[in-house]
Each structure stands twice: as C-alpha cells, then as structure tokens.
Design a protein that fits this description.
By secondary structure, this protein is mainly α. Helices cover 67% and strands 0% of the residues. Helix 2 runs antiparallel to helix 3 and helix 11 crosses helix 12. The radius of gyration is 20 Å and the shape is globular. The termini are far apart.
Length: 268
C-alpha cells in the first residue's frame, strides 16, 4: 500500500461516520454475489474476489460492506491461508470497515491477528507495518497504554533497520498521531521534527492528508483517552490543528528551534 493510499484510509477511518447511503439492489453487486447471503455463502475464490471489490466500494450500503467484508476476511483465510495476498487484503479492508463503523474492539482483534501471522512468518517489513496498524487500532479503541507500547516497539524496530524498512512515513506519522491524541503534543512534534529527513519524500498532497489525520486524532481522541479528557485538551478546532500540523510537516526546522528554545528555558 502506498503512503497516499494509507493516509486516505486512516483519515477516513478516524472521521465521524456519515449516515449510511441507501441500500443497493442485488443487481448492483458483482455477479458472483447475486442472490447470495454473506452469512451462508460457501467459501469460494470467485465470491471472495467479488466480496472484496464490494467491501472496497465506499458508496455501497454500510451493512452490506460490513457483512461481505467479514465473509471475505474469514473465507480468504480459510481458502488461502493468512499470508496469501487476498487474505491480507481482506484483513486490511475488513479492519478499515470495522474502524469506520465504530466497531473498534473488533478492529483491534483483526489487526492483532494479521500482526501475529507476519510475526510467525518472520516477515520484518509486514510485521512493522502491521504493528503500526495494530497500535492505531488500540489507540482508537481507547487502549492508550498498549498503543504506546506497540508504537515504541515499532520505533525501535524502525531505528534499528536499514532505511526504515521502506515505511518511515507510516511509522513516524502513526507514532505522532497516537501521542498527539493523548495530549502529548510536544512529544508528537519532536517525533516528526527529529526525523524530518525521513519525511522529505512526502509530496504536498500527502503532507496535507497527514496534517488532516493528525488534526482529527488530536481533536477527537480525548473523548476516549486514558490520559486526557476532551475538556482538558488545549485546542478543539480541527482546522487550526490542521494548520499547525501542516506547519510542522512543511517547516520542521522552525519547530525544532522552538523546541530547543523551550528546553533552554526550562534548564535556565
């Protein structure tokens, strides 16, 4: 998954869900699914492929996406095994749907299953990205302590790996979002500023999406945070937050100087 695609997915999942669109007719679904019930449909590769396509369609009926996403998740693993590309794709899509529809505990379990599968396979790259996904799922579910533990482990793995295993943006932005959501704004800024060179490849569109995601987490997470409350959060205006985080991403050297000035002031 590209950085842009990942940012689009996490930003959509973090936002307040919209009212469900009107239900689609059975004829609007892929032909392989016509006349089938996702609860009783047999395990079949063609149906799994059609179910994945339907689950990806954000304009489809929310309940239908959820049920067919669950079908694809369970049956792709049954037919192909946990590490098959179709099973991994189904896991990611189903987790995204669960998060978007506020089934945050179930999203955690799906993310955890995928992480454990890649850990058993000793796949370093997929383990790193899956750990980031697991951490953000824990955070969204309100388990901030576990989310921070997984974030710290992901950062240690990233620091010790050659070239960040190719996923520096995901690791750093996930860590910053989790810390910003828990009211640790200075730590989140430092996470981004200290490693700004590893985010230099992000284009303007990705930086804007990242700022939007960080702002959304910073303004919505305190409602279920273990460490902060919505009332105690310093700035609830998502647009102002977005401007702030975009500034951090675009001009990290300015924020680095401010951080150093703050530290100097504390020492003196």
């Amino acid at each position: 998954m590209s950085t842009a695609a990942w940012l689009r997915a996490v930003t959509r999942a973090a936002q307040t869900p919209l009212p469900p669109p009107a239900a689609v007719n059975d004829g609007d679904r892929p032909a392989a699914m016509a006349g089938l019930d996702p609860i009783t449909a047999p395990a079949d590769a063609d149906i799994v492929a059609a179910a994945l396509a339907h689950a990806r369609d954000t304009s489809a009926d929310r309940e239908s996406r959820l049920l067919w996403g669950r079908y694809a998740y369970h049956n792709a693993r049954t037919l192909f095994g946990d590490l098959h590309p179709a099973a991994v794709a189904a896991s990611r899509i189903y987790q995204r749907i669960l998060a978007e529809q506020q089934f945050t505990f179930d999203a955690v379990r799906v993310a955890q299953q995928r992480l454990h599968a890649f850990e058993r396979a000793r796949d370093q790259v997929q383990t790193l990205t899956s750990r980031c996904s697991y951490a953000t799922a824990l955070h969204r579910d309100g388990d901030c302590e576990q989310a921070e533990q997984q974030t710290a482990l992901a950062l240690r793995t990233w620091w010790a790996s050659p070239h960040g295993l190719g996923h520096s943006a995901m690791v750093l932005l996930s860590a910053a979002a989790i810390r910003a959501g828990c009211g640790r704004t200075r730590t989140a800024v430092t996470t981004l500023v200290d490693h700004a060179a590893h985010l230099a490849h992000l284009d303007g569109s990705c930086r804007r999406m990242a700022a939007r995601w960080l702002a959304t987490i910073a303004t919505t997470h305190p409602q279920q945070c273990q460490y902060t409350s919505a009332a105690a959060s310093p700035d609830r205006d998502v647009l102002q937050q977005q401007v702030f985080w975009l500034s951090v991403l675009q001009t990290p050297q300015l924020h680095q100087r401010r951080s150093l000035d703050h530290q100097t002031g504390q020492i003196s």
